[in-house]
């Protein structure tokens, strides 16, 4: 991995491949980019594929106190400039999709296009989560697992030993532990990310996004289900929607080939 300094933090990233720049933005917050790999790595066969650890997340420094959506979007733009590309594609998963939307609204002249994966224009609604879990046969009281303190990687894995099947409903019950096995959990990033999200909502600004956009979500995503993805796609003028069957919040894990095929077709279209 490599790093550069920007606005008081050292931002770590991993980049490989050749071609137009594609920056992949992870979710969480409090996580890092590793849960996206190796599933999305094949995109580096024809793009300059770059994974970023957000400030105060993963290997990047910071305590999370200065996290805002604007600051995170500025960090992404600084990475683009650091890598020497006039424009970039963005693939944002979950919270990374929030940052991708903020970037599209702040730096439209530096954007080729967006891939919004299991995300929305505001944070997940409690009633949506409850309904989504009930569709999966999970009772609302099970959400109490998220009230348990998470201070480190071991705590994170214990939570996902319970919650993992909600995120990966078509996988083995132990799949989440494997997916998150290399994650460096950062409580400061988690807490700062939640604060940054509290007042963030760009729903009324989506029609300002001119960049071509692909919206994707898992058919059984309990946080960002297909109806929310449909509303997101409908509000962005140059957007297409793809719902990935037999997958939850991480369709690139459960239906890797389907996701890669759709993303590749979007990136390579004339």
What do you see in this structure?
The structure is a single chain. Strand 7, helix 7 (226-235) and strand 8 form a beta-alpha-beta unit. This protein has one domain: Alpha/Beta hydrolase fold, catalytic domain (Rossmann fold), CATH 3.40.50.1820. Strands 1-2-4-3-5-6-7-8 form an 8-stranded mixed beta sheet, with helices on both faces. With 270 residues, the chain is of the alpha/beta class. The model has no long low-confidence stretch (mean pLDDT 96). Helices cover 35% and strands 18% of the residues.
Radius of gyration: 17 Å
Mean pLDDT over the full residue set: 96
Element-by-element helix/strand order = EEEEHEHEHHHHEHEHH
Low-confidence stretches are none
Largest sheet: spatial strand order: 1-2-4-3-5-6-7-8
CATH topology: Rossmann fold
> Can you name the CATH architecture?
3-Layer(aba) Sandwich
Q: What is the CA-CA span between the terminal residues?
A: 33 Å
- Helix-residue proportion: 25-40%
Strand content: 15-25%
How many domain regions?
Answer: 1
Task: Please work out how many helical segments DSSP would assign.
Answer: 9
What is the CATH class designation? Alpha Beta
């Amino acid at each position: 991995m490599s790093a550069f300094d920007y606005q008081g933090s050292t931002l770590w990233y991993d980049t490989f491949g050749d071609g137009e720049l594609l920056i992949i933005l992870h979710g969480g917050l409090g996580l890092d980019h590793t849960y996206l790999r190796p599933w999305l790595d094949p995109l580096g066969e024809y793009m300059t594929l770059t994974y970023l650890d957000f400030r105060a997340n993963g290997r990047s420094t910071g305590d999370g106190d200065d996290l805002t959506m604007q600051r995170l979007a500025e960090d992404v733009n600084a990475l683009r400039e650091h890598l020497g590309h006039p424009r970039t594609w963005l693939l944002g998963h979950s919270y990374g999709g929030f940052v991708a939307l903020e970037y599209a609204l702040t730096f439209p002249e530096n954007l080729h296009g967006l891939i919004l994966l299991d995300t929305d224009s505001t944070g997940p609604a409690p009633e949506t989560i409850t309904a989504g879990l009930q569709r999966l046969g999970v009772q609302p009281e099970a959400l109490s697992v998220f009230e348990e303190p998470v201070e480190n990687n071991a705590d994170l894995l214990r939570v996902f030993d319970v919650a993992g099947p909600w995120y990966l409903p078509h996988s083995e019950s132990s799949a989440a532990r494997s997916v998150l096995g290399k994650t460096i959990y950062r409580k400061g990033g988690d807490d700062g990310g939640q604060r940054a999200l509290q007042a963030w909502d760009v729903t009324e600004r989506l029609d300002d996004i001119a960049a071509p956009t692909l919206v994707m979500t898992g058919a059984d995503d309990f946080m960002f289900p297909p109806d929310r993805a449909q509303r997101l796609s409908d509000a962005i003028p140059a957007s297409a929607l793809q719902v990935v069957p037999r997958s939850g919040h991480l369709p690139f894990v459960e239906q890797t080939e389907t996701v890669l095929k759709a993303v590749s077709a979007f990136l390579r279209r004339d």
